[in-house]
Q: What sequence folds into this?
């Protein structure tokens, strides 16, 4: 048989190296805080998330910073 590539490598391949110990360096909440800091400093994201319309507007701004302009958002 030849060299494993693509799906074959994922399904039957064995990972090389070792995992790092401990918890992941970033949590979902950490990513939210960083994204909001890029848009507006000092914003309490938990309070903002309770107002659905303001939260959706903020998320669209953050996504527009990350995604090319040719992609359209669903509102």
A:
């Amino acid at each position: 048989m030849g060299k494993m590539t693509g799906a074959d490598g994922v399904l039957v391949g064995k990972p090389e190296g070792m995992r790092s110990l401990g918890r992941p360096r970033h949590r979902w909440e950490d990513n939210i805080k960083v994204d909001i800091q890029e848009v507006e400093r000092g914003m309490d994201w938990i309070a903002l998330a309770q107002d659905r319309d303001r939260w959706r507007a903020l998320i669209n701004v953050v996504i527009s910073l990350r995604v090319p302009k040719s992609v359209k958002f669903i509102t």
